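tool=predict chain=A
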Amino acid sequence: MLINEINFYQPKVMIVMSDIAILAAFAKSTLIELSKQQHALGEGLQNAAPGEKSGTPNKSVQYLFTCSEYLAKLAAQCDEVIETSSHAPQHESKI
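tool=predict ok
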């Protein structure tokens, strides 16, 4: 008998994440990636088209940075959804 077959027949307990937690984790990772990309785009635009001589950046750059911060905050709020759904009763199944 192969090792994989031996492990297959041993009973294991598996905790299944709820659908809400899975969606929240997916949304969090997507929002974080969007935030990073938007921040990088803002930095690139700031380097390519510097703002006024007084040092204030273009409004487009400010918009990109503001939206990037907002997306990061939304991603942090996804943790609350994941945490809340983890306190809900979870299903256990034996494999």
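Strands lie at 13-15, 92-94. The chain is about 70% helix and 5% strand.
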